[in-house]
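User: Second chain of the day. Same drill as before.
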Amino acid sequence: MLDGSHAGFQAAVDATATVTANAALAGGVSQASVQITNANFTQPPIASNSAVLAPAIPGWTLSGGFVLINGNDGADPTVPAGYQALGGFTAGASAQTTLTGLTVGNTYSVSYLAAVNGNPASHIQVLANGVDITNGTITPPGTYTQFTTNTFVASSTSVTLAFNNIQAGGNAQFTGVTLNAVGTGSAGINSNFLVASISAANANFQTTIGTQAYNAAGTYATVDGSIELQVINTGVSIAVQETFINSATGAVSVDANLYGAYGVASDFDNVAVTIGGISNLDVGTTAYVKISQHVAALTNPSNPAFNFQSAANEGDVIQVGIEATNTATLRISNINLALSAGNNPSIGAEDAIGQIDNALERLLNQRAQLGSVIVRLNEDASNDNVAAVNLQASESSIRDLNVGQATTEFTKLQILVQVGTSVLSQSNANAQSVLGLFR
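Assistant: Same format as last time:
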């Protein structure tokens, strides 16, 4: 049964990224996130797979030419589900929103999805209170596959963010805008730790396309693996070095990029890791993020689930599928404790721990599923036993003698017979007495 021959339907399992070990830092200030109105431009809604000249957009001020796009309009890159996008098609077109509630001196990150159609020189430039925070790195042409993140230090309690199309003849599009204080996001994560936050870096996080793990271009699937982050001293600055190990292949990759305090590392496995407030006091500290890949739903008609008739009526059926359980399906057949990297000789062992933990969790889930079915079958058996007892009692009340009732009836009739006999006897005696008076 553990070979999957009775797997039946198995629900899909989402990809996950879990911080399995995190280091507390010597510094770092927890801050609050700021909500952006209509960040996905879904108000007002427009027809699916269409584009219109942008109407008034709640929460935003538009100048220059913009279109509002939903899905695939046949001309622009497809906007991800759950989003609508703004596209500026004139040079200098600007979409602006003003936010309040910032803390002066705190660092904030602006993240967004961007795409370009037409002139490849068309790009998104982001300004915060008139200051270019793209720092010369303008969002390149893309198809909404990866979030771009820019940071700035708040100089006042409010900020006006401007998203500008800086070239004519093209349509620079963007959506999914978020503003987070570095160190705190919607999950309430704290920059006092090396991993301040983790999130999906792009739309590929829940995909199973391809086989590559390194995704600086944001075009590969999420695979089982572990990300190690280590604070190092480069001799010039304090930075975080990111290393990734692919659990299936054992390939170890060291990121060529280094990340400073409050930076966002997103070069591996479609996961964006926001770094906490590191300092020279944190050199040598490490953190680990374990990634488990997406598993598609399994529908296999040739390997049907077990069917149990749980009661007497039609349709009273319990189904249970037992998925294949072996080192390959548990994805632990290729773990290698001896794998190492130049900056961490035990990274293979660290990843193996996480991979085995995932395998144990799958086994426990399967055991829990079987246990719930057993409990339900036991309940059904108990109900069937009660029904059988009740049925036997009903048959007994119909077919068997009610001894108590019959005894009572017999006693009553016997008394009546005896009383009748006594009365008759006395009446005869009285008649004889009367006749004796005449003798």
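Residues 401-439 form one domain.

User: Great, on to the next one.
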